[in-house]
Amino acid sequence: MAKQDKAANTADKVKGKAKEAAGKTTGNERLQAEGKSDQVKGDIKQTGEKAKDALTD
pTM for the full model? Predict the structure, then answer.
């Protein structure tokens, strides 16, 4: 299941980058902020997965 979690975390980061870019393009500050938030969430979750991997190895 760890691989699925890592893939989902990466998807969150990619989705966030897309939202941020769309927000910049359209001048929508709220969309930019949501994109940055999604990226941070993905990073935090990914860090948690790496910590779990380190504990199990």
Answer: 0.81
